[in-house]
Specification:
Blueprint lengths: L8 H22 L3 H7 L4 H28 L3 H17 L21 E6 L6 E6 L47 E6 L2 E6 L6 E4 L6 E4 L15 H14 L4 H21 L1 H15 L11 H26 L7 H18 L15 H11 L1 H30 L4 H18 L3 H28 L8 H5 L2 H19 L5 H30 L2 H22 L11 H10 L12 H14 L1
Antiparallel strand pairs: 1-2, 3-4, 5-6
Membrane topology: Multi-pass membrane protein
Keywords: Membrane, Transmembrane, Transmembrane helix
Pfam families: MFS_1_like (PF12832)
């Protein structure tokens, strides 16, 4: 135990590890499942893409700005406590956002007989509830699936009648591609069905049905909802169906406002905590112990994503009977945020004020603009963010369409994080054998392979094998990027340059990928989006490997390496230039540039 508690390194690292663990659990409660919750609110892919793109954009630029202000005015602890305290209430605002369907039929909490199908054409969410109330009869047969169901595509101006049409407005005016029949006991009802992904299942209780995956289509098949025929048909029947955009407008606006307010409070937390701990350890020359703290965050995220997904199925129906599923995620997030708030009181924050130039970020930006290697690396990180955002936003939608449970979704994400932790002991040998450029190429290739694989998913469990590659497509890829940044940075710009790559370039790419990805999903399909990202990554990989050896190489001397070599070379008897420490260091530097 240190005599001065201010520099109790062991205690500071213990608190920091626990804080990272708790924050990992906290983030995993909501972040992986956020787009799935927005889908359950009734928002289509373009609106979800806009929301997530805005979230990434705020995080990319607001977090560094707040970290700069907190450091300048010595208010880091105030910001940590305020961020955690505000996020407790801000996250609960999402629970108050009204869904487009106030009484979704896919919730089988009370065994009701209602059937709900939500069919959102582009920009419109349409909900129809049908209730089947059979009269009890001792020998009445159990309900069965309809013998015939219309899943074809009608012409733009074509409408088709059917049994019970005369007394069932507005169903008689719907395009046949949206209409299916459900035959219950003594009742034949016509309900809106999704032409691709909706399925009707009978339940053990007589006369009860439920619609599975009533959402925007993600798989190609037949004519998509975004086709001109379906768009014109939807527009032609909007007046008769009283399709009010008011509900969609308010759901989207309230979701946007809640997420913006939430992100403004939450995004600065991680960077402020990292900067505080790094400066605390740097003052006593213990920054080497800072590098392993990310493992604790990944452990917390792995435990949190599996734990919250296991609780959702057990507690969701008891907490609410109306609205979408998923409120347990936000309640868990608020609860763990309260625990993190208590830990932040003891989080190590330096109380001294060390003078440092305030233009480091500007210097880092000018360094990127003047180095072709950093420019290509920045473009690589930008494309990584763009491609990764499509997986983070819509992979769970894809799995949900294949009837995957949230527990399987959480386990699939945890599988990649745990693989990254297990691969970490091989980080140094991997970078030495493949070099930094080779490791970046391997990571890009694995990411492209994952995207191509995801476009051909055939079952809910088929996503699990590909998630193992996340250890390389995320872990090893970022190790190589970090090593390249550390090598190319000038003294004093390593951390500002690394923060710029992770926030501005990666976050900007994720924002663009979210904005564009939602509209691609609506216009084409998720499979097309993933294959397009795969092709772009492979093209960039080929270009990256082609131009790297041909970029101009500036001969620089790494003085820290010179001092290390000087300290190890204590023999004065060695003669010649082959033993000279300066020549050795310059040769090592030249070999690093070639790698």
């Amino acid at each position: 135990m240190s005599a001065n508690p201010q520099w109790d390194i062991s205690r500071a690292l213990g608190v920091a590890r626990f804080f990272h663990l708790v924050c990992g659990v906290r983030d995993a409660c909501v972040t992986p499942f956020l787009t799935l919750y927005l889908r359950q609110l009734g928002l289509a892919a373009p609106w979800v893409g806009i929301l997530m793109g805005t979230k990434h954009l705020i995080s990319a630029f607001w977090a560094p700005f707040c970290a700069f202000l907190a450091k300048s005015y010595q208010k880091r602890r105030v910001l940590l406590i305020g961020s955690l305290l505000g996020s407790v209430g801000a996250s609960l605002l999402m629970v108050l956002v009204p869904p487009l369907d106030r009484d979704p039929g896919y919730r089988s909490c009370d065994g009701s007989h209602s059937v709900t199908a939500t069919v959102p054409p582009p920009g419109v969410a349409l909900t129809v509830n049908v209730t089947s109330s059979p009269e009890p009869a001792p020998n009445h047969p159990a309900p069965s699936l309809p013998a015939e169901r219309s899943t074809g595509v009608a012409p733009a101006d074509g409408f088709r009648g059917g049994p019970g049409e005369s007394g069932q407005e507005p169903f008689s005016r719907l395009p046949s591609s949206f209409v299916g029949s459900i035959q219950g006991t003594r009742t034949t009802s016509r309900v809106l069905l999704h032409p691709i992904t909706s399925r009707v299942k009978d339940t053990p209780q007589e006369g009860a049905f439920r619609v599975v995956s009533p959402a925007l289509p993600l798989l190609a098949g037949g004519m998509a909802l975004a086709s001109p025929a379906n768009q014109s048909a939807a527009k032609g029947t909007a007046g008769a169906l009283d399709l009010s955009l008011e509900g969609l407008r308010w759901t989207f606006i309230l979701s946007l406002g809640s997420m913006v307010f939430w992100e403004l409070l939450t995004s600065p937390l991680e960077q402020v905590a990292d900067d505080s701990l790094y400066e605390y350890l740097d003052f006593v020359d213990a920054t080497d112990r800072y590098r392993s703290l990310w493992i604790w965050r990944l452990l917390g995220m792995s435990a949190g994503v599996c734990g919250i997904s296991a609780l959702v199925g057990q507690l969701d129906c008891f907490l609410t009977t109306n609205g979408p599923r998923g409120v347990v995620h936000f309640y868990g997030y608020s609860l763990v945020s309260t625990l993190a708030l208590l830990v932040s009181i003891a989080f190590p924050v330096p109380v001294f004020r060390r003078w440092e130039p305030g233009y480091k970020m500007v210097k880092a930006l000018s360094l990127v603009g003047g180095d072709p290697r950093l420019i290509t690396l920045a473009l690589t990180v930008f494309l990584i963010g763009t491609a990764t955002s499509t997986v983070q936003n819509f992979l769970f939608w894809h799995m949900k369409d294949h009837e995957s449970s949230e527990l399987v979704m959480g386990f699939s994400v945890a599988l990649g994080w745990l693989g990254e932790i297990l691969l970490h002991p091989l980080k140094t040998p991997l970078l030495r054998k493949l070099s930094r450029v080779g490791t970046v190429g391997l990571g890009l290739g694995c990411l492209a392979g994952q995207l191509l694989y995801f476009s051909f998913l055939w079952s809910w469990w088929s996503v699990l094998p590909a998630q193992i590659l996340s250890a390389i497509s995320h872990g090893a890829l970022w190790w190589a990027v970090g090593a390249s940044i550390e090598h190319l940075a000038t003294p004093g710009t390593e951390r500002p340059l690394s923060a710029m790559f992770r926030s501005h370039f990666y976050g900007g790419g994720a924002s663009l990928g979210s904005f564009v990805g939602g509209f691609v999903v609506m216009r084409f399909s998720l499979a097309v989006l993933y294959r397009a990202c795969c092709v772009v990554l492979l093209l960039w990989l080929a270009l990256f490997l082609f131009i790297q050896p041909r970029l101009p190489q500036e001969r620089k001397i790494n003085y820290s390496k010179l001092l290390a070599v000087e300290a190890s070379d204590t023999s004065d008897s060695e003669q010649g230039t082959e033993r000279d420490w300066l020549v050795k260091a310059m040769r090592d530097e030249h070999s690093d540039w070639r790698g």
